[in-house]
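Subject: Nucleoside triphosphatase YtkD structure
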Amino acid sequence: MKYLDLNGDHCELSFEKNAFPFESKHVLVICRYHKDWVLTRHNERGLEFPGGKVEADEKLQDAAKREVYEETGVVVSQLEWFAEYLVYTQNPFCKTVFIGIADRVDNISLMETQGIVLREKIEVNSDFSFLMKDDGMRKIIEKVKQLEKWNH
């Protein structure tokens, strides 16, 4: 699926692994804690799914778990590859999307975010980051909601 993000950059979304000729160096994690969606409130952008950059010599799954923990205090146990998208900026980059289940929430010190926000439903509104409002993210959320294990 091709779309424009809200920065005006061309993007491509795929639900197949290794669909792009770029190594993924960013992660995004969509996870549940009990029956709620795990979000974080970024200090500048608003509500969004946790994620970030992969550190040198770090595996994607390790980066995903670390980013969720650093931004929310959530410990993710089950983590699965779900999708990836490519953003054609001046320096194109690929981001891997994971889905996961959270075991617990620790009370930790946070830097970039105001911590965990749990929502029963994802209804993107003005409280949400612009990163949550493009066609690619809408498609990702729609497909995650269709997974049987998320409907319990």
